[in-house]
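Please check this one:

***
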Amino acid sequence: MPEKSKVPPLTLKEVAPQLGLSATFVRNLCVKQLIRHSRFGTSEAKSVYRFRQEWVDEYVAAAEVPVQQGGQQNGKAKK
């Protein structure tokens, strides 16, 4: 049986500022299944979303853009 987290889950309104996004944008990420979440409710419009901090951290890590090596930008060498 999985270990239960003693940290309460985060709400949509708590996660949005962490990501620097609006609650509407984060809700859309949930609807499109682009961020891990738990959903409680029978319809998208009336659902309540909850997040674990590690899920938010995973989303941020996955969105990271690596720095290009060798001074190249868009496949072109800098002049």
Summary: The CA atoms of residues 2 and 52 lie 15 Å apart. Strands lie at 10-11, 38-40, 48-51, 72-73, 76-77. The longest helix spans residues 53-62. The chain has a mean pLDDT of 88.
